[in-house]
Amino acid sequence: MSTNGKKQIHCRDGLWSRPSSPDEKPQLMGSKCPNCGEVFFPVNPVCINCQNQTMNDIKLSRRGKIYSFTTMTLPPPQWYKGPVPFDLGFVELPEGVRVWTRLLGAEAGTFKIGQEVELDIDVMQVDAEGNEILGYCFVPVKK
Amino acid sequence: MREVAIAGMGFVKFGRYDGQKGRPYKEIYELGAEAITKALKYADMEWKDIQAAYGASMFGGLGVPNQCTSRLGMPGFPITTVEGACSSSQQAMRQAYFDIANGLYDVGLAFGTEKIPPGLIADTLSPVWMLRMGFNLPGTYALGTRAYMQASGATEEDMARVAVMERKNAIMNPNAFWYQGPEITVEEVLNSRVIASPIRFLMACVNADGAAAAIICSKDKLKSKARAVTIVGSAHATATYGYDNLGNSVREKMNPNCTELACKQVWEMSGYGPEDMDVIQLYEAMSPGFLWDAEDCGFCKPGEAGKLVREGYFEIGGKMPANTDGGLMGRGHPTGATGIAQIAELFFQLREEAGPRQVPGAKIAFNHCSGGGPNALCHVLKR
Question: Is the pLDDT reported for residue A3 higher than 60?
Fold first, then answer.
């Protein structure tokens, strides 16, 4: 719950875990196949690789390396309400999956391939009722 | 399966039909009907000769193919709407090809028509939460581009050279957006505004309206057998595990991408290989795509495309002329029409009707077309 009494809404339920204690940090939620071992983000009910019909929930590592990035200088049509320019990227997690993400926490255009980044959750926008819409992003690891 | 020929092609010049700034206004179905009429004229056939139609449009909405055909006649034959993102009309052509090859029909029509809204193309493939977070098509293309540059050593200058070459070709193509347009230089491309780094404005294809239509028939139904062009290979593949719906690799490469798959199938079906081709069409919604497409389709080794572009290998006068009509960059990209537009240039080349763009003695041609899904279509044509 945010401080003004309005709700905080995940932009999509189940993308990241809700910490159960103040020491716990959110992690992206994926699925791992008990049959072939492949890992997916976001969660998927069946294995896209081997069609195994049951999947196990997995909390993905909070840190990864930038596989690619781009700086958008034009606002995408319709849905995006954040600042421009802004950065997007793929972050490679140790589980072997590349996650599409926003890149924040540094000036747009300053990220590098191979840079270590970690998961963060932020308020992306406020809806008509004043509720905060949360999204995930990756930010530079604080040394 | 029997031999299938392309009897005729028709185009509405790719451009803007929005009625603004003195430009003509045409509805999406007017564009389609015009292209169909021209294709019939080229084929020396009549409306009543057609037995089935496959029509494509990405952004047009419901029933666009029917809107096009009902301006020409109400024939009662099946009119199937095909949507496959940017490869829509080539998927339509492939359906017509197999129907005729398998003897279901003798003469078919395949066409695509499109009017693209201005600005960044809306993404209807991706879930809303991603769009809220800023996901967009040029951004995703840019991510793939930077990853490709990292792996291959290709430079922004290589990407700019592709744009320059394709503009030069389009200037000679009466059906292209940039027909008689200004040439561009590598410097101008590299100084153009960044859209999604490293993609710059002049590395991206222009939004355009337009239509293209093909009359496909069994070879024996051609009105004239002179310079007959037949389809000898047709393939359609989608992504195997490891890629997202725009074709980005989302884990270490486990499987071939859909372009590699479709190419493998079309070489097997046609009995030819990349080295046998005289003229080709590669798919490049943005100019860096030309480079990885040349590699994925087997026209050079991984990482080699940039160097070959620098050497003029893919120019009209080079060893493997590619996108001689300007490609998507030079023609413009009315998405529903692009697939058949690509085939049309190869058709004109094989029939020695490409004028100043002509590759002398072209006999065998290859096409690759991609779309969101992702999907890849490949065709081999022979004269």
Answer: no
pLDDT exceeds cutoff 80 at A77? no
Of A12, A109, A125, the CB nearest to B197: A109
Phi, psi of B79 (to 5 degrees): -125, 110
- Do the chains contact at A68 and B150, CB–CB below 8 Å? yes
How far is B374 from B292, CA to CA, in rounded Å? 16
Asked if B194 is an interface residue toward chain A (Cβ–Cβ < 8 A), one would say yes
B212 at the A interface (CB within 8 A)? no
ipTM, two decimals, is: 0.94
3 state SS for chain A: CCCCCCCEEECCCCCECCCCCCCCCCCEEEEECCCCCCEECCCCCCCCCCCCCCCEEEECCCEEEEEEEEEECCCCCCCCCCCCCEEEEEEECCCCEEEEEEECCCCCCCCCCCCEEEEEEEEEEECCCCCEEEEEEEEECCC
Interface contact A79-B131, CB threshold 8 A: yes
Q: How far apart are CA A61 and CA A65, in angstroms?
A: 11
Q: Check: CB of residue A33 under 8 Å from CB of residue A47.
A: yes
- B146:A15 CB<8 A: no
pLDDT at A4 over 70: no
Sequence-distant (≥ 6) Cβ neighbours of residue B186 within 8 angstroms: B157, B160, B161, B164
Pairing status of strand B52-56 against strand B79-82: parallel
CB-nearest to B143 from A74, A82, A90 is A90
Pick the CATH number of B4-119+207-221 from 3.90.1150.10, 3.40.190.10, 3.30.497.10, 3.40.47.10: 3.40.47.10
Would you state the structure tokens that stand for residue B25, as one six-digit string? 């206004």
**Is the CB of A76 less than 8 angstroms away from the CB of B131?**
yes
Q: Does A76 touch chain B (CB under 8 A)?
A: yes
Are residues B195 and A74, on separate chains, in Cβ contact within 8 Å? yes
Whether the CB of A71 is below 8 Å from some CB of chain B: the reply is yes
Catalytic positions of B, written as ranges? 86, 333
Q: Is B126 on the interface with A (CB under 8 A)?
A: no
Structure tokens at B370: 């991609």
Pairs of residues, one from chain A and one from chain B, whose beta carbons lie less than 8 Å apart: 109
Give pLDDT < 70 ranges for chain B: 120, 122
Q: What is the pLDDT of residue A132?
A: 93
* Smallest Cα distance from A74 to chain B, Å: 6
Please tell me the predicted confidence (pLDDT) of residue A31.
97
